[in-house]
């Protein structure tokens, strides 16, 4: 019996754990620093067990990996190089949903030589986006065409009926991850010209886009799109963009958060002794008598501005202490956001993924192709985010354990042997795309998958 170790029992782990527990040929161990969280996911299932694991304890981590055939990490990428090192030493396959950083890429050749699969970027974004894109790219190539333009957009949002807070956002995954991503640089190709966006300007560089079935949303650049020209085999494109989707007003709001230094990880306070109001007053150099006016002055905005109402709603003008001990401003803000931007029982999230392609064929035809997935969470059950991240991860782990992936080393799911079966299985779980084609201005309305 193959043994699969899942590390991390957070917000997206549930569907992955349940999927693998339902595969009778596997034994599943779920590990988390808080054992009760892991135990809750396993329940009384005879095919699994829960353990307490602090991944900073390298000996305990190595011991857990040594007893596994496949490791699935649902932790932030920063922990993956250490896991990869142990997996390499112990001949264990590794699956993550994280982007491939240079620290992970460094393991490629040694893992390939040992016939190990270190599969990354197999969540939703990155993950399902790669697979859905490669499906269409290869269909165009097989028909003799070439892709001349590509844009990919993805966002996890509250479902419209549950979009009931002034920020238009709720957390279906780690607040820390969202906040750290807010400082990422971005890069894309537009009309053959490389556009670079600094992390400082990230939320000042956005557009509005209409997504069929989801309405008008904001889209800002998601990291560096250029490497995917080579990875996807579409080096001749003139436009190449990867974007994140948010509700209207989000980019301006987060730009103000950054201006107020709320993402600062170095500025520390004793939050048992000071309130959010006092911290904000110190940041904007206020005497503390009229902090709201001083924040408006600091930001250079009128006192009736919406961002001030949002800060007040979040509790940043509150004199009530949050009692998290000595921590950074970043930690304070993450704590506040996690308390305020939550899904209540029976509320649903919305996962939107949208691709736009332009293809050209030897006979002169030009074709615009769109591919859209809209998935909503299950009231009282799994969120759309947890399903679209956790299920691809679990399906990939099953394929690796069964020896069905023959590409080795550090890879992402751009290969037909991976994306064909995974997309087909996801479709049986209502995670599917609607595709529409327009050729030379004439709609073919070519639908391969029924829209949800």
Features of this protein?
452 residues; alpha/beta; Rossmann fold; Dihydrodipicolinate Reductase, domain 2; 3 domains; 8-stranded mixed beta sheet; 7-stranded parallel beta sheet; globular
Spatial arrangement of strands, main beta sheet: 10-11-12-7-15-16-18-19
Indicate the CATH class of the largest domain: Alpha Beta
Going by CATH, the architecture of the largest domain would be 2-Layer Sandwich
- Within CATH, the superfamily of the largest domain carries the name Dihydrodipicolinate Reductase, domain 2
Mean pLDDT: 94
Question: Helix/strand/pairing class, anyone?
Answer: alpha/beta
Poorly predicted segments: 445-452
Summarize the structure.
The chain has 452 residues and is an alpha/beta fold. Helices cover 34% and strands 25% of the residues.
Structure explained in plain terms:
By secondary structure, the protein is an alpha/beta fold. It has three domains: 2-119, NAD(P)-binding Rossmann-like Domain (Rossmann fold); 128-251 and 344-381 and 431-443, 2-Layer Sandwich (Dihydrodipicolinate Reductase, domain 2); 261-340, no CATH class. It has helices at 13-21, 35-42, 58-66, 80-90, 102-105, 108-113, 128-142, 175-181, 227-231, 250-259, 276-283, 291-299, 306-314, 329-340, 384-401, 416-427, and strands at 2-7, 26-32, 48-52, 70-73, 93-96, 117-119, 146-158, 186-190, 193-197, 206-211, 215-221, 239-246, 268-270, 326-328, 349-360, 366-376, 409-411, 434-439, 442-443. Strands 10-11-12-7-15-16-18-19 form an eight-stranded mixed sheet, covered by helices on one side. A hairpin with a 2-residue loop joins strand 18 and strand 19. The two termini are 36 Å apart. Residues 445-452 have low confidence and may be disordered.
């Amino acid at each position: 019996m193959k043994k699969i170790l899942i590390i991390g029992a957070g917000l997206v782990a549930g569907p992955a754990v349940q999927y693998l527990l339902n595969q009778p040929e596997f034994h599943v161990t779920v590990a988390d620093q808080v054992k009760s969280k892991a135990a809750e996911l396993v329940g009384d299932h005879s095919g699994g067990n829960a353990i307490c694991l602090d991944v900073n304890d390298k000996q305990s981590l190595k011991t857990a990996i040594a007893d596994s055939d496949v490791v699935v990490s649902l932790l932030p990428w920063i922990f993956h190089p250490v896991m990869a090192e142990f997996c390499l030493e112990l001949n264990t396959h590794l699956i993550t949903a994280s982007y491939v950083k240079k620290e992970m890429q460094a393991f490629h050749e040694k893992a390939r030589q040992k016939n190990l699969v270190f599969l990354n970027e197999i969540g939703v974004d990155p993950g399902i986006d790669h697979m859905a894109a490669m499906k269409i790219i290869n269909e165009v190539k097989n028909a003799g065409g070439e892709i001349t333009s590509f844009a990919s957009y993805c966002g996890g949002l509250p479902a419209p009926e549950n979009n009931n807070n002034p920020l238009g956002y709720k957390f279906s995954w780690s607040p820390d991850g969202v906040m750290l991503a807010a400082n990422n640089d971005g890069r894309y190709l537009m009309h053959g010209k490389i556009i670079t966006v600094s992390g400082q300007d990230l939320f000042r560089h956005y557009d509005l886009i209409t997504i069929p079935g989801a309405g008008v949303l904001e889209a800002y650049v998601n990291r560096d799109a250029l490497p995917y020209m080579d990875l996807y085999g579409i080096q001749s494109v003139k436009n190449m963009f990867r974007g994140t989707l948010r509700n209207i007003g989000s980019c301006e709001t987060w730009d103000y958060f950054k201006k107020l230094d709320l993402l600062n990880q170095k500025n520390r306070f004793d939050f048992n002794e000071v309130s959010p109001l006092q911290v904000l007053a110190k940041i904007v150099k206020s005497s503390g008598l009229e902090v709201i006016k001083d924040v408006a002055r600091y930001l250079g905005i009128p006192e009736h501005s919406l961002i001030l109402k949002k800060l007040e709603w979040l509790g940043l003008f509150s004199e009530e202490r949050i009692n998290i001990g000595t921590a950074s401003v970043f930690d304070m803000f993450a704590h506040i956001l996690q308390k305020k931007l939550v899904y209540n029982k029976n509320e649903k999230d919305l996962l939107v993924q949208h691709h736009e392609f332009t293809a050209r064929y030897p006979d002169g035809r030009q074709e615009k192709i769109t591919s859209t997935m809209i998935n909503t969470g299950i009231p009282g059950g799994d969120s759309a985010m947890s399903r679209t991240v956790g299920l691809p991860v679990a399906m990939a782990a099953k394929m690796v354990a069964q020896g069905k992936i023959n590409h080795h080393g550090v890879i992402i799911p751009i290969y037909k042997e991976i994306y064909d079966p995974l997309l087909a299985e996801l479709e049986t779980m209502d995670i599917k795309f609607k595709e529409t084609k327009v050729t030379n201005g004439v709609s073919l309305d070519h639908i391969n998958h029924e829209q949800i």
